Amino acid sequence: GELLPWLAKMKQCAQFLELRILAEVQANQGEPALADVKLLLRVNDCVREQPFLISQLVRIAIMAITLQPIYEGLAQHCWSDAQLDELEQVLATQDYLADFEFAMKGEKITAVETFEKQRLTRESKQWEESSGTNKLVTISYRFIPGAYFYGNELAFAQMHQQFIVPLVDLTNRVVAPAALRQAQDAMQSGMKHYSYYKVQAQMVFPAISASVMRIARIQSQVDLARVACALERFRLAQGNYPETLDALAPQFIGKLPHDIINGQPLHYRRTDDGQFVLYSVGWDEKDDGGKIFITKSGTVDQKKGDWVWQYPAK
Q1: Using one digit for the tens of pLDDT, what is the confidence trace for 64-78?
Q2: What does the pLDDT average to over 57-64?
Q3: List of long-range contacts for 93-98, beta carbons under 8 Å, 24+ apart
Q4: Listed residue (238, 232, 260) closest to 88, CA to CA
Q5: pTM of the model
């Protein structure tokens, strides 16, 4: 709870900077727009070393805010070759897969420390909403045996090692949805056999597993933005977009990022209107040809279809 006010202020700052960058892009002011993008990324990096999942989730939200004016700037050809090169290199420093592993280690330490504090004090405090106001309440564990806390500490450490760490393959830079489904099935199977010594650890897993897709998606969007910068550099040099992504490296980008869902090359094609479609296969692991699915509420369905970078037809 103590971190939330600080993180909320950061997000508000990001939203303000987003509006300013969008205004600069509309005015075709590439240099100040780039400077503000870099400032926004520096603001976001302020909590990069905080080992808490909530901090990383706010960073993801701010990165999504940052990508919108970057998208607009690229769509409107706002930046020069040198500015695009600088922008791509700044984006290349954003590694949300490594940040996830770091945050998960922090979550493990925090969880074990929390259980241990409950064992020693035989109480915990939490905020509860009552009649529209938050109230701090104390929960007593006076008659709970010490084995309960030790058991949950062990269960959380085992869950971290067996189910959480393997979700993100840092060596191959892959986040496999199938691995998450297997972990969810294994945890669900374990919950069928209720254990007094695992209940708290099992309650934490759904929140952690839900964050994995968000980590994968934001890293994919950052990678797509980097390739989009290289594509724009190619267009400035050659007058049109390349036939294939292979034409970009190493002149316009040092190394092409791959699709983090399956480790395969990102999908790309030029379109008849002189634009392009660039995409990852997305969370369903199927190549839908660059198709986006919309939910009933009108938002993009993140679990279906592809994760796409495409400019409006002119």
Answers
A1: 999 999 999 999 999
A2: 94
A3: 94/41, 94/63, 94/219, 94/222, 95/219, 96/56, 96/59, 96/60, 96/63, 96/215, 96/218, 96/219, 96/222, 97/168, 97/170, 97/173, 97/175, 97/215, 97/219, 97/260, 98/170
A4: 232
A5: 0.88
